[in-house]
Fold:
Amino acid sequence: MNKEKVKKIVGIGYVNLATFVWATNMVLGRLLKDSIGPITISAARFFIASMIFAALLRQQPSEERRIGEDGWLLVAMAITGIVFFSPVLYLGLHYTTAVNSTIINGLAPLLTGLFATWFIKEPMSSGQISGAIVALIGVLFLISGGSLSFWETAQFNIGDIMILVSVAIWGLYSVISSQVMRYRSSISATAFSTFIGFPILCLFAAWELQNIPVHLDFKLILIITYLGIVPAAVGFYAWNAGVARLGPSGAMVFYNTLPLYGALLGFLFLDEPIGMPHIVGGLLIVSGGIWAARKHSPVAYSKIVRKEN
Structure:
């Protein structure tokens, strides 16, 4: 097996790890909507993630522990992925359902492919487009249960607009992070963007706390600790490591595995049934992602990224 195939397999593993842990984030975000504000929960989880990345960064070479000419790109990563994405996502979950949120997130690969084409001239191949469309069909099939009557009663609201905005923000973050990782490793890129974004989140959280008080209890502390360690630290690092190997468009086709993992987690821990729509939708999602990854060759990255492979 050549190095390019190994890199793709590792990249697919990373992005699927990220979407798996983020599937738990969606459920827990809905669970906490009455206990803590969307900005405050983001600040709390990224405080924990910052401490983890600070410890990891100490083990990196000296050049990885400095901000260089890519400083403005790190700021852009922080603004999109750290400051805006999570609060807008959590705010949207206050007003819409997990079903609507999942459907809208199915647009992520296509939006990211368009951003990559516009901003970094990374064209979407026919394989990427077809793979993204197949995966989107899988999402719609999974959510609707294969029933056309579902769409007759589906309702969309202001929360759906917020989720769509968060999806667009995440697409921009993925494109920007792919450029940052031309200059530094995934750990360094994720750490510095978190360090830059966290203080800004704290300022917004201080304002939010005046209007949305926190109902502190042991359950809230436990969940926030989990969100900081797993979806924030592990998830963001794994996603950026996957983007470094697959490119932003190649990674985003696997973003649609979120509802698939959500259904599996519901089956395992909440006794929610899995039927034929879940199986068919899951197969379409996975097949679309693999097809797009096979047909896509990401742009060449720097020696920093090659060293990580």
Summary: Residues 3-308 form one domain.
